Amino acid sequence: MEVILTELAENHKKITVTVSKEEFLSERKKAIKKYQKTAVVPGFRPGTAPESLIVKMYGDSFGINETYEKAYKAFEEEVAKNQFKLLLDPVAEFSPEANFSTGENVTVNFEFGTEPEVQIEITEIVSEPLYAVQLTEQEVDEEIARLKNENKNVIEANSLDEAEAFEIITHTHGHDGNQEPEHSVTYISKSDITDDKLQEFVEKFQQKDEHINVFDYLLNPEDKKFDNLRSSHHFHLGRMVKFEEIDELTLAKKIVPSKTFENPEEFKQFLKKDFEEQYNELSKDIFLKKAFEFVRSKITNLPMDFLAKWWNSYEKNKNNTPFETISGSLVWELTNSLINKTLARLLDLQVSWENVIDFYTEQYTKTLPEDQLETMKPLMKNYVEGMLKDKKRAEQMFDRTYEYMLKNALVSHKTNPFTVTLTQFREILSNIN
């Protein structure tokens, strides 16, 4: 076999494997003999039909598969010799001049794309700032006050004078069919309503007039706290209500029912740690996003002509979707794969199934009380191992574990994160968005 490598364009190549007449006819002869041993042909005992009759009945298909397999092996050897990293499977085609009866002009063209070289150093990737968020005592108090306000006890009011707010029950879709509509509650306080329209609103509310346009009565209809009402399919008018303040330990039972706190200070320190963990995870996510964006900017010269040919081959385009329609999403997917490979190479990152099991076991047990960990951890590990038997779910779990380990590996290169308060971090977030 003769093997010729041709550069078609940057990261777009072709390997042509030419099969001599003698090689093809030899493979063809072997294929016919193999089939002849078991062929059932009318008028002949099994395995006795003459070769000429078998060829006449079944045409020139003999030897093609065997020849292709040999040609593909030659292609793989050439790829390995040149250390090419294939972007996708090659597009393989026999030459249109090939004569499978005589063995003349039998060549296989393997057209393929290679991964672009990404010249980058880890120091460049981690040059973006990373923020370590630490809440001040005042910020913790403010967060507790916010949570207490959001979790007040709601009590039905007996009169308008006693009422502090009006309950609106919003549904995400209609009541048709068997699906129960999801609902949430929005409270409109008296202070949210314009003074000159308060009485009219109250009358319609008490009459349960659900054709009312609530936003016509509001002082600030664009307020974010009315987003649920604005996006709902429809709503129902509920009760006039008043609110009862709750203390820290009652709040603790509401939002952390699995844990018991001895005093408000213990709950306060728990919240401080929890908030800092949440915001620092967000900070890491932003840092990781910036790192991905930086690597993405270095990935250029994808072989678009090859991608178009690949899309239109192998029945990938069964729905006759034009390449132009899917090219953006295909490039995005390929680029993400290259980003992951680049970062994994630079960080020497390897993810095993043991890593996946450990990560998910930790996720499922982290909220359990300490006195249950010893008993529950082996059970959770067995549960995770069972989940991994589902191939699709296992791939998703592997990807999530990879993202977690990648984030930590990148963050480990930042030995000097900027310490900021929650207020400062929120200001940073507003500028990013």
UniProtKB/TrEMBL annotation:
Domain of life the protein comes from: Bacteria
Coiled-coil regions listed: 133-164
InterPro entries reported in the protein's UniProt record: Trigger_fac_ribosome-bd_bac, Trigger_fac_ribosome-bd_sf, Trigger_fact/SurA_dom_sf
SUPFAM superfamilies in alphabetical order: Triger factor/SurA peptide-binding domain-like, Trigger factor ribosome-binding domain
Keyword Lipid biosynthesis attached: no
Keyword annotations: Coiled coil
UniProt xrefs under Pfam families: Trigger_N (PF05697)
Statement: the UniProt record of this protein carries the keyword Coiled coil: yes
Domain Trigger factor ribosome-binding bacterial, chain residue ranges per copy: 1-147
Biological processes, Gene Ontology terms: protein folding; protein transport
Protein name: Trigger factor ribosome-binding bacterial domain-containing protein
